[in-house]
Write a structure and sequence with these properties.
By secondary structure, this protein is of the alpha+beta class. Helix content is 42%, strand content 14%. Strands 1-2-3 form a 3-stranded mixed sheet. The longest helix is centred in the first third of the chain and has 14 residues.
Length: 145
């Protein structure tokens, strides 16, 4: 029996998947956290529009990491719901990812009418490298160094 791991390591597997017209199959194997986020949001919120962006490459993490994400979720469930409650629903759907591999999650949650009026996705800010570039950090920590 051939395991999924063995298949992924086979020479030409990626090309075969793409030629068969199944790039999503490859990406779900190649990007398990992103795939899990997408699957859970679809199953739990039934969005009419969903975008999942892996923004890890914009941060100080190893190449190929799945730690920083932005999601754009548009669903009927959000109609008449405050933004905070929308974010709580997304966070609840992704609680396992947030407790594990996901370090940061940016959420744009819109009701269908809001999306129709403004389908824009805000640009994520550049990473500042966390506290290592903050000259005030030692004073914020009370000089505990």
């Amino acid at each position: 029996m051939i395991s999924l791991h063995m298949l992924r390591s086979c020479r030409g597997f990626r090309q075969l998947v793409l030629e068969l017209g199944c790039p999503a199959a490859f990406s779900s194997m190649d990007k398990p956290v992103e795939s899990s986020i997408r699957t859970k949001l679809i199953q739990q919120l039934e969005p009419i529009h969903l975008e999942v962006y892996n923004e890890s490459n914009m941060h100080s993490v190893p190449p190929g990491s799945e730690t920083h994400f932005k999601v754009v979720v548009v669903c009927k469930l959000f109609e008449g719901m405050p933004q905070l409650q929308r974010h709580r629903l997304v966070n609840e759907a992704l609680k396992d990812e947030l407790a594990g591999p996901v370090h940061a999650l940016s959420i744009q949650a819109k009701a269908p009418q809001q999306w129709k009026e403004d389908p824009s996705v805000s640009k994520s800010p550049a990473c500042l490298g966390g506290s290592k570039n903050d000259p005030q950090m030692s004073s914020k920590l009370g000089n505990q160094a």
